[in-house]
Specification:
Layout (H helix, E strand, L loop, with lengths): L3 E2 L2 H7 L7 E2 L16 E3 L2 E3 L4 E5 L2 E5 L4 H23 L4 H4 L9
Parallel strand pairs: 1-2
Antiparallel strand pairs: 3-4, 5-6
């Protein structure tokens, strides 16, 4: 929602994912009839039919349909790498040693 929502607890209890810019206790008003299979702009980003809209508590991202498979595959690569890093840290490594941060310049 490129605006405000309310009743977050109820949506969460129903398992209905909803993300918005704001939260408000006021009930909104419909602004027209809407549309199906049209391009919209939300948060300054164009969203077309077939695009992937992925969100969690940290934010929302729009993945263009033509790049969805590529982005999904790259995301799995990142997940695997991060899982390996977590395992090395659980075994006693530090983040700086696991990522070999000492080879980088100090900022």
């Amino acid at each position: 929602m490129d605006g405000a929502i309310r009743d977050i607890d109820e949506m969460d209890a129903m398992g209905f994912p909803c993300f918005s810019r704001h939260v408000s206790s006021d009930a909104g008003e419909p602004k027209g009839y809407g549309g199906i299979k049209i391009t919209i702009t939300c948060g300054g980003v164009k969203v077309r039919t077939g695009d992937w809209v992925i969100g969690d508590a940290n934010g929302v991202v729009v993945v263009p349909a033509e790049r969805a498979v590529e982005v999904a595959n790259r995301s799995l690569d990142v997940l695997e790498r991060e899982n390996r890093i977590r395992e090395e840290i659980k075994r006693g490594g530090t983040l700086s040693s696991v990522l070999e941060l000492d080879k980088w310049e100090k900022v």
